[in-house]
Amino acid sequence: MLTRRALEEQPTADFAFDAFGLVADECGLTYEMANDVIGGFALDATGFAPKNERDMMRYCYHVAGAVGIMMAHVMGVHPDDGETLDRANDLGLAFQIANISRDIVEDAAANRVYLPAEWLAEVGLAPGEHARPENRFILASLMPRMIALMEKHEAAARLGAKKLRFRHRWAVLSAANIYGAIGRKVLDRGQLAWDTRTRVSGPEKAWHMTTAFFEALWNRPTGPVEPIIWSRHDFRPVAGW
Q1: Could you tell me which of 52, 48, 29 has the C-alpha nearest to residue 40?
Q2: How crowded is residue 103: how many other Cβ atoms within 10 Å of its Cβ?
C-alpha cells in the first residue's frame, strides 16, 4: 500500500505520496491517522448511508474530523493534548455538516444520502425521495436541527483554536466563519436552499477573514451552550459498519 510505504519513508513513485511521507515524518502523522481518512473514501465506495445521527457523525469524522486532527498535528499540537485534538475534530465535523446540508440535492442525484434515515422517517420522507422538489419544504424543516448541530461543533472548535499560534488560529477561525456562513445560508434560504448552490461570495469571504483576524486577536471564545456528545474516540476504527 502506497500510504504505508510513504509513512515508512520508502519510495512510492508517486509525488503526492512521497510528499505526504515527508510531511508525516516532520509532523508525526501516523498510519492510524491516515487510515481514518482513507476510511471516509471506503465508506463512500461501499454505498454508505447513515441510519441515525451517530452514523452520520461517524461519517463526518472519517471524511473531515480526521483531517482536522491531522492538520492539528501539522500546526504543532502535541499528541498528548487530547482536548485540542478533540476540538480539531469538532471543526471538521462542523465543516462536513455544512457540506451535507448544502449538497443534499446534488448527493441525491448521485444516489447518495447523508441525512440520517431516522431523521427523514420522523418527517415522513424516504431516502431517495427526500430531495424531490415537492418534498423540499419538509426537507427544510430538518435544517434547524442540522445547523444547530453544526454550530455546536463550530463553537467547540473555537475553544481549540484558542491554543494555536496566532497565524494558525486566524486561519482556523477564517475557515470556521466561512463554512458556518454556508450552513446558516442554507438554513435562511429554507426550501429554496437547493434551487441553486449555496455559496459565500468573495467579498463575504473577505469579511469573514477580517472578522476572524479580530477574533484571533481577542482570543476569548465562549464555546458551545450544550455539551459535545461525540469525541474522536467514538468513531474509530472504521470496521463495524
Answers
A1: 48
A2: 18
pLDDT exceeds cutoff 60 at 241: no
Residue with cell 438554513: 187
Is the distance from CB of 26 to CB of 81 less than 8 angstroms?
A: no
Residue 238 confidence (pLDDT) = 58
Question: Would you list the domain boundaries of the chain?
Answer: 47-235
- Note the pLDDT tens digit of each residue in 125-138: 999 999 999 999 99
The CATH topology of domain 47-235 is Farnesyl Diphosphate Synthase (1.10.600)
Q: How far does Cα 137 stand from its chain's mean position?
A: 25
Q: Is the peptide bond before 237 cis (omega within 30 degrees of 0)?
A: yes
Interacting residues of 49 by C-beta distance below 8 A, sequence separation 6+: 112, 113, 114, 117, 127
Q: Is the dihedral of CA 191, 180, 112, 145 positive or negative?
A: negative
